[in-house]
Amino acid sequence: MTLPYQFPKDFWWGSATSATQIEGGASEGGKGKNIWDHWYETESNRFFDNVGPETTSDFYHHYKEDIQRMAEIGHNTFRFSISWARLIPGGRGEVNQEAVTFYNNVIDELLANGIEPFVNLFHFDMPLELQEEGGWEKRAVVDAYAQYADECFRLFGDRVSKWFTFNEPIVPVEGGYLYDFHYPNIVDAKRAFQVAYNTMIGHAKAVDAFRKHDVKDGRIGIILNLTPSYPRSRNPADLRASRIADLFFNRSFLDPAVLGEYPQELIDLLEEHGHLPQTKKGDSDLLKANTAEILGVNYYQPRRVKAKENLPNPYGPFMPDWFFDMYEMPGRKMNPYRGWEIYEKGVYDIMMNLKENYGNIPSFISENGMGVQNEERFKENDEIQDDYRIEFIREHLKWLHKAIEEGANAKGYHLWSFMDNWSWMNAYKNRYGFFSVDLETKERTAKKSAHWIKSVAEKNGF
Ligand code: BGP
Asked: How many Å lie between the centroid of ligand 1 and the Cα of residue 423?
């Protein structure tokens, strides 16, 4: 029987996580420090409830049972990230054998349970020593990253075929160099663009290294948080504002990653304001030759944009903000528990844009999800009744399905996240998982959505 929303054969059902957010064991197993360990040690008050990443959901000790649970709810794929500071403490040099054993165990356990591992190399967690050298602002750090990537392909490429160079590379730029919500808390647009540019050079170098390995059915790509930009009106000023927001927040990564070059309009804008990053001879060829073969799309919310009413004079440090303002669309649907707009059709718009303008690159929804504060209040008979999450996923899936029907090359859907986990400055404020986690005992409990996704995955639709 065909269901109203039947997905293509071998559709990827799963969820996404990241090392710092789920592993814990931050000072176990020979792991070096990354910027999160350091920032928490020095400024714990910047984290919600003063909670840091030392233990989080403790996947480090619970991975076996967690992977069993993934299999139970029908996952056929699962994304995790490798902690650079765990694998290579200090960021370059010797590989830490305990870390190799840990990641080997995770990969083998996934495969034994019929779950394909999707491995991401960098999810905001720069080794501290490399940040102290200047982080992504420095080419030497980019080279260290390429070596780390190469090491990962060598160690795990015999069993892992899907690889991602970065998760949301714009976030460390915005958080660390523009808007002060990530370490190193610098506010400087020129440096921000250097970081953004160097990250893409790192991506291209990692892709280049990957192609020198013989990874069976290997595919390498990148995961971007795409926030479709919608103008307040069709008047030319609003349209321009929206186009520029799209240039900065989507195309500054999407174009070099998928097309191998930056949009000319973005280059012109940066040049006009003296913000062009330093480049090296050969960079353009490197970018052009090493584009992504697969694209992960993290989609949470759209960006509603209107023209700037008054241009700041003098211009402030936040270059992107010189050109547009955000705008709250009347009647928009909100996630009342997190404060983000919910606009399910965004999934469709993103996928059709990829189809029309980005060569219909194979893609998937690599994160989508609903953060909820104080989720325990929805508990009945020992189970969190997260009907709001079920509805959220279902409505996004309907639009994804429509895009596929119209020819989009979308291969799967991953929820953020498998279980409740620690989130950057927000710590445990917003819960996202199919499973809740008791922070004291680390006990995991399925939410209603876990049972629902199991039935969807089993029927490959709904
Ligand atoms: C994405 C990140 C994830 C995760 C998620 C939820 O941007 O890739 O790491 O944190 O957002 O966001 P938050 O925890 O801030 O609600």
From this structure: 6
